[in-house]
Design goal:
With 124 residues, the protein is mainly β. It has strands at 4-7, 10-13, 18-24, 33-39, 46-52, 58-60, 68-73, 78-83, 92-102, 107-108, 118-123. Strand 5 (46-52) and strand 6 (58-60) form a beta hairpin.
Length: 124
Amino acid sequence: QVQLVESGGGLVQAGGSLRLSCADSGRTFSADAMGWFRQAPGKERDFVAAISWSGGRAYYADSVKGRFTISRDNAKNTVYLQMNSLKPEDTATYYCNAGGGLGLDYYLPNMNYWGKGTLVTVSS
């Protein structure tokens, strides 16, 4: 049974930092990738970042490139999202996705495996 648990969200001032974690306690997706999405109220769920398990190759949305860093710990089946220089526009619920496929210029999520989300609020 796959269970994804996000943590690390909270309230932070603009320009501050947060680190999100997503732990997969049910399966090792060593042949796949994991990613982060975010969704603001009334908005679509948008891609943020993804990373492959085998090679650690990362892919980012343009809106977060240079500010966010995704990383993974294969032994712990955990992916992290370090968020720096946060802006009010980053305010959203952040969701972890497991078992997706990372291409050269896209991330295809596995729609069966989502975390419940962690809320990030960036104040002005």
